[in-house]
Amino acid sequence: MKHCDKCHIVIETNQKYCPLCHQVLQGKGDPSVPEIYPEYIPQRREILPITKKALLFVTVISILTLLGINLFNYTGAMWSFIPIGAILYFWVIVRYGVLSKQNIAFKLAFLTTVMIIILNLVDQTYGDHRGWALDYVTPFALLACNLAMTVIIWIRRIDYRDYMFYLFTIIVFSLVPLILYLFHVINVLWPSVTAFGLALFILLFIVFFFPKSIKDEFKKRFHL
Amino acid sequence: MKLEQKYQEWFKLDNSAKIFPEVSNTKETNTFRVQIALKEVVDPDFLQLAVDAMMERYPMFKVRLKTGFFWRYLDYNSSPFVVKPMLHQVCGPLSPKENNGYMFQVYYRNNIIAIEIFHSLADGFGAFMFLKSVVYEYFSLRGYPVTPDNIVLTKDSSPTIEEYEDAHVAYYDPKNHKHVPEKKAFGIKGTPINDGNIGMISGTVSTTKILELARGYQATVTEYIASLLMYVIYTTQIQHREHLKYHQKPVKIFVPVNLRKHFPSETLRNFSNFVKTDMVMNRPDITFEDIIAHTKEKFRYGLQKEELIRKMSENVAFEKNIFLKLTPFHLKKYAMKIGYNIMGLSLNTMSLSNIGKVDFPDSMKPYIDNVSAAVYSGKFNTLNVAIVSFEDKFKLSFTRSIIETTIEKEFFRQLTSLGIEVEIESNYVEVYV
User: Fold this and answer.
1) How far is CA B50 from CA A1, A111, B5, B42, B82, in A?
2) Is the alpha carbon torsion for B309, B312, B316, B317 positive or negative?
3) Residue ranges of chain B assigned to CATH 3.30.559.10
4) CATH 3.30.559.30 residue ranges in chain B?
5) Among the partner residues A39, A212, A223, nearest to B70 by beta-carbon distance
6) pLDDT truncated to tens, each residue of chain B (433 aa)?
7) Does B10 sit within 8 Å of A7, measured CB to CB?
8) Cβ distance B128 to B358 under 8 Å?
9) Distances from the Cα of B410 to the Cαs of A6, B74, B127, B235, in angstroms?
10) Residue A11 and residue B425: Cβ atoms within 8 Å?
11) Distance to chain A for B421, nearest Cα, Å
């Protein structure tokens, strides 16, 4: 036991100073007695900073080079936005796919949505054969996402209730291409029907085999 | 238990729990710690087993926080819970994503078992009940002859509905919810500690001697300590600083009240309210006797049943408002944030949580050395105090988010000058950060 003759308190520590007045403590401590509270260990960093710096540097240089080449040989089209979009999508994957601590279903749904948006923008802006992104990519990306989520839940044996909400979201999204077909925005029917068919199949599977969990999930999400 | 049955276990957030997720961040963590120091070194494997067993008994802790369309809720969490060695940081932000979704953490170090818990899950009473059960289970796994004596909940009993009711809603009065506007309180300023770290200084004194001191003024221990804190704030922060006196904000100490003592509820979730001291200290000659008379009057008024119900109903009325109810959660969130900024933190100078005497069965007492608690401190409430007593060990834990220790120093010097022996513990945050 050490003591502080200014504050008149006793303390069991291997530190030299009184925590109250910071004067040197009197008396001998027992070095074999460990400190009551642990020492401070700084939190580890999430990404190696040199890797991050190098990647960011390469990203900026590539974007500038692409823009430069495009502008100095300008032939009427800003084709450089396509590779730049791809590079930015890479960063979205790193940030929201790899480093994020969100659950896998959210990551899948989010990345698929971003990809669909980027590809549709590309489709709307460039090329002669317009409409491929809406006709084929959108329904097939939704189908792939839906399938991936189901397979992950099945294989990893994780608590499917946590993912149900995302599954529902994807199923609702799968309806969008069909509706667009009705309004003649989409011209090819079969990819949209396939995507919606799978979504409906999964939904019916859940309704028939886990009806209660659906009911509970709705009760929880919408309680007042 | 059938799988389907288990999945029913989800809970609405109770009335006071609703606010915390919206107003918490790395600076205002809204966590608190309860800890029991044993007389032997803790074995982490046995502790893990004990916690696993208790998670089944306390379903309201085996949850993760989720967002619904109108409100957040607590959903059954099927992931495993892992006990961890204690960190330096006291009452730091709990990161549910790194913690399998759980909103509390069980730490061990040397002879200490500590629980840090987010305030949405439970209040001090509930957290101590859980900790006591874990320690009981730990002892019985170690083979010690302990008996629960109806003081500790064990894994042999099963959870009841009453234990997770929202008692605020059960006892509020829809006719008595008048909002009484309040002035902002005096804040203790200082140099912030880096990285949101919290300094902790605890002092252990004799329970009987503190009781004697308080009885000398015909006051309860809480009233006495609150008055002493106010006196120390006055002498160190206000008395000699003339420029403060023209616009003096009142010094207010927020003292949580365990409503289970006033209403017949067995809930283990949040069920507490508060009383506040409230004194404008702009005279140069305020004595300790003045302060304690004021504190006793404020406590007498604040602890009247009508006043407790009014404060409780004020919050419940907010939740029951049909327009607010039907607002989607992501909008409601902002309403709650604004409401909290108006009625929340800046209305208190500091908080003083007296958890009181923690009861243990006689068979457990020989293995326990001391018990303590700590409350986070943040940007405005830079200093908070938690008190727990166990037998003759009365432990006051000061947590601070500023480097200065003036108030702690003066407070303990006041006690030692009255002939009370004080044993100090510190996490020595200033050495590391």
Assistant:
1) 33, 41, 24, 12, 11
2) positive
3) 8-153
4) 194-432
5) A223
6) 444 444 457 888 988 888 899 888 888 899 999 999 999 999 999 999 999 999 988 988 999 898 888 899 998 888 899 999 998 888 888 887 778 889 999 999 999 999 999 999 999 999 999 999 999 999 999 999 999 998 999 988 888 888 888 888 888 888 888 888 888 899 899 999 988 889 999 999 999 999 999 999 999 999 999 999 999 999 998 888 877 777 788 999 999 999 999 999 889 999 999 999 999 888 888 899 999 999 999 999 999 999 999 989 988 888 888 888 888 888 888 888 887 777 666 889 999 999 999 999 999 999 999 999 999 998 888 999 999 999 999 999 999 999 999 999 999 999 999 999 999 999 988 887 7
7) no
8) yes
9) 11, 43, 31, 9
10) yes
11) 7
Contact B108, B85 (CB under 8 A): yes
Is A223 in contact with B71 (Cβ distance < 8 A)? yes
Cβ contacts of A7 on chain B, cutoff 8 Å: 409, 412-413, 416, 424
Could you tell me the CA-to-CA distances from B85 to B90, B108, B195, B198, B355 in Å, in that order? 13, 5, 20, 18, 25
Buried b (16+ CB within 10 A) or exposed e, A30-59: eeeeebbbbebeeeeeeeeeeeeeeeeeee
Question: How close B134 gets to chain A, by Cα (Å)?
Answer: 21
Q: Determine the 3-state secondary structure of B23 from DSSP.
A: helix
Cα B111 to Cα B388: distance, rounded to the nearest angstrom = 18
* CATH classification code of B194-432: 3.30.559.30
* Tokens read off for B290: 């003045």
Instruction: Give Dmax (Cα) for chain B.
Output: 69
Residue of A11, A24, A26, A37 to mutate for B, most B C-beta atoms under 10 A: A37
Domain B8-153 coded CATH 2.60.120.10:
no
Token output for A68: 């430069």
- Decide: B30 and B20 in contact? Cβ < 8 Å: yes
Give A-chain residues touching B200 at CB under 8 angstroms. 37
- Closest of B286, B278, B294, B296 to residue B234, by C-alpha: B286
State pTM to two decimals.
0.84
Judged by CB atoms closer than 8 Å, whether chains meet at B88 and A13 is answered as: no
Beta strands B393-400; B72-76: pairing state? unpaired
Chain B residues inside the 8 Å CB shell of A213: 4, 7
Subunit contact B423:A9, Cβ cutoff 8 A: yes
Buried (b) or exposed (e) across B67-92, using 16+ Cβ within 10 A?
Answer: ebebbbbbbbbbeebebeebbbbbbb
Q: Which of residues 62-121 of B touch A (CB under 8 A)?
A: 66, 68-71, 73, 75, 78, 85-90, 97-98, 109-110, 112
Question: B205: which DSSP letter?
Answer: E
